[in-house]
Amino acid sequence: MPELPEVETVKRELAKKVTGCTIAHTKIYLVKTIQKPDPESFVKCIQNSRINSVKRRGKYLLFYLSNHLCLAAHLKMTGHFSVCGQGSALHKHTRVVFSLDNGCDLRFVDTRTFGVMYLLCQKEMDQFKPLACLGPEPLSDAFTAQYLFETGHQRTLPIKAFLLNQSFACGLGNIYVDESLFRAGILPDRRTNTLSKDEWAALTLTIKEVLQEGIQHRGTSIQSYTSTDGRPGGYQDRLLVYGKDQRPCVRCGTPIQKQKTAGRGTHFCPTCQR
User: Is 3 labeled as catalytic in the residue annotation?
Assistant: First the structure.
């Protein structure tokens, strides 16, 4: 699933390509992609609305529209946005097409069909549960070592499960959590109430560094992720532990191990992480 750096990359590219455009027509090819409202109302409400801005919250893309509405989209496993000419051939897994007034289409392609869209009133977004339950953005000033210490110290969750919980740290996923824990020297199954303030401080710093590097390299392409123009990310070439099962640790040479933590395949160095 695309994580914060991938969604941020897509957001930045879409902001350059569609901001200021008006949605002239919408065609839905897969009804279940539209979660709210019903598809007919969705098409009617979004008609002739101007895209004022494109933002991101956690793993959600948010298209703020001129008619006080916001289109919230979650890519899930294989969702992908592209901008192309209206005469170009449709991909066979195209689910929704927004025809814009500049002669281009904003197309949503989703092979595994888990991606979803919601059309929301902007004034009601704070009450929309999938967004309202999200924790602080890891790259924001609110995401501090003190916040993590206070939130984690009273819990006994494995640290990986804690970081994957979007209500504690939104936007983080399997890849960037494994990489951050390795850099911070913390085992993924350590219980949150056992981490010291110094460990929380190191982890906070590494999370921010890893995410910023991921964005700088346009995300990580392991399976299907590409940006809006079809280009893969580049951060997969810089991963230190994720996907490195049985390869020597870059720091100590110990074979990287893989286990299941928080229901996810998890990579770590048993020597460097404590």
Answer: yes
Residue 48 belongs to domain spanning: 4-132
Indicate whether 99 and 201 sit together in one domain.
Answer: no
188 assigned to some structural domain: yes
Tens of pLDDT, residue by residue over 185-220, are 999 999 999 999 999 999 999 999 999 999 999 999
- The CATH number of whichever domain residue 226 belongs to comes to 1.10.8.50
Q: Which residues contact 102 (CB under 8 A, 6 or more apart)?
A: 21
For residue 223, the model assigns a pLDDT of 80
pLDDT score for 251: 97
Catalytic residue check, 59: yes
Residue 262 lies in a domain: yes
Whether residue 2 lies in the annotated active site: yes
Domain count, the chain: 2
Residue 177: CB partners within 8 Å, gap ≥ 6? 160, 163, 164, 188
Torsion-angle region of 68 (φ positive above 0: left; ψ -120 to 50: alpha; else: beta): left
Catalytic residue among 11, 59, 183, 244: 59
C-alpha distances (whole Å) from 49 to each of 56, 61, 72, 95, 194 are: 19, 17, 15, 20, 51
Please tell me the pTM assigned to this model: 0.96
Which residue, 105, 132, 159, sits at the end of a domain? 132
Amino acid sitting at position 119: L
